[in-house]
Write a structure and sequence with these properties.
Structural class: mainly alpha
Distance between the termini: 20 Å
Largest sheet: 2 strands, antiparallel
Order of helices and strands: HHHHHHHHHHHEEH
Number of helices: 12
């Protein structure tokens, strides 16, 4: 597996896809802060040219980390089976289970690097260009990145699973959305009438984050309390375990 991981790092580093994806992630918050700053040039009292408003766009939407994981995986591995890359690796003697584990390692390393650079650019550009005021601070963004990490990793593993199972990216993305977005919402509404289902639904990230209050006047994310932080971490680790087991089982089944 180590040789496969090394070869994947070599392939990705020498592919323009990595740099395009990284640039997209880094440019998004930078452009947001530049845009907010430009508004102040024409309207000095523009109410949204603050660091709090800039940070709140991400702090209020932690599912963004999950969607980013989905985007990253499919950008790096979209069409991996169709273009013959995966087939060549399998014929060289590496099992699909090791390929699955190797892709997790590669995507995690790439994700962490991009996350660190993106958050750093986000904070430095906001602090330099915008008025430092409001309830949402740079520390909230940093804490969010740490608190949501297990859930984002679970989303990343699920993304790898569906990318390996389905040859068509569109179908894989639809399944991912069903598992991470649509099913939790359906279970939440069913749980209004059935308490046990409601308890299960509230552990799912889509519903777990829905009760947060993060805006221009208040910042009370779920991870601000010990209980809320514990729920974020436990939910993420449960997802990692479930999707990891499903991925290993699916990879073994495809080898039969």
């Amino acid at each position: 597996m180590l040789n496969y991981v090394k070869s994947e790092f070599y392939r990705i580093i020498h592919s323009p896809t990595l740099y395009v994806v990284g640039l997209c992630f880094i440019a998004a918050p930078l452009l947001l802060n530049i845009m907010l700053y430009c508004f102040t040039l024409y309207q000095p009292d523009f109410p949204y040219s603050t660091t709090s408003f800039s940070y709140s766009n991400i702090v209020a939407n932690p599912m963004t980390f999950c969607f980013a994981a989905l985007f990253l995986v499919f950008a790096l591995y979209e069409g991996n089976e169709k273009n013959g890359n995966l087939k060549n690796v399998v014929t060289s003697g590496i099992s699909r289970k090791k390929i699955f584990m190797g892709q997790i390692v590669v995507c995690l390393v790439v994700s962490v690097i991009i996350l660190i650079i993106t958050v750093s650019v986000y904070i430095f550009s906001a602090q330099f260009l915008l008025k430092v005021e409001g309830p949402v601070t740079a520390m909230d963004l940093v804490v969010e990145s740490l608190a949501v990490t297990p859930i984002a990793v679970a989303a990343l593993i699920l993304s790898i699973v569906v990318s390996m199972i389905f040859e068509k990216s569109s179908i894989g993305i639809i399944y991912w959305l069903c598992i991470f977005v649509f099913v939790p919402q359906v279970l939440f509404y069913i749980g209004i009438k059935i308490d046990p289902i409601r308890e299960i639904a509230l552990w799912m990230p889509q519903n777990l984050f829905s009760g947060m209050q993060v805006n221009q006047s208040v910042c009370t994310p779920i991870w601000a309390t010990q209980n809320g932080l514990s729920r974020c971490l436990i939910s993420g680790f449960i997802g990692i375990a479930i999707f990891g087991i499903v991925g290993v089982f699916s990879s073994r089944k495809r080898e039969l």
